[in-house]
Design brief:
This protein is an all-alpha fold. Helices cover 75% and strands 0% of the residues. The chain contains 5 helices and no strands. Helix 1 packs antiparallel against helix 3 (39-56), helix 3 (39-56) runs antiparallel to helix 4 (60-84) and helix 4 (60-84) packs antiparallel against helix 5 (96-117). The N and C termini lie close together (9 Å). The relative contact order is 0.15.
């Protein structure tokens, strides 16, 4: 069965987001919670994860595992979103209302990935 076009939109979104971890790493390091160690390594690892999971959803053999990997990754990333709500510096200059909207968006993205786990 041919995967729907919107699966490739989702895959491209994660691949591009992952590449941005290497193109603009400082942007991601600014929003890392202070309690996490080795921010640069974590930014690079999360970028690699996004790229590999984005590629993985494109193939029948790895789609289910990659979909659940995306859900897990987005769950972990929630800690960053909540951290960004903790103060002015942590927000990286993003308006609070956008930061608040990002939280339900994470759950929508989790559902979107779950949808493809059973194609």
């Amino acid at each position: 069965m041919m995967a729907p076009w919107h699966l490739y939109v989702m895959a491209g979104m994660y691949i591009i987001a992952g590449l941005m971890h290497f193109i603009k790493p400082k942007m991601y390091m600014r929003i890392m919670p202070l309690y996490l160690p080795n921010h640069k390594l974590l930014v690079h690892l999360s970028g690699i994860a996004e790229i590999l999971l984005g590629i993985g959803v494109c193939f029948d053999a790895t789609r289910k595992l990659s979909s659940f990997g995306i859900i897990l990754m987005l769950g972990v990333f929630l800690s960053v979103h909540f951290y960004m709500l903790s103060g002015e510096k942590a927000s990286a200059g993003i308006p609070k209302w956008i930061l608040i909207l990002r939280i339900p968006l994470q759950f929508f993205l989790m559902y979107w990935a779950y949808y493809y786990a059973y194609l």
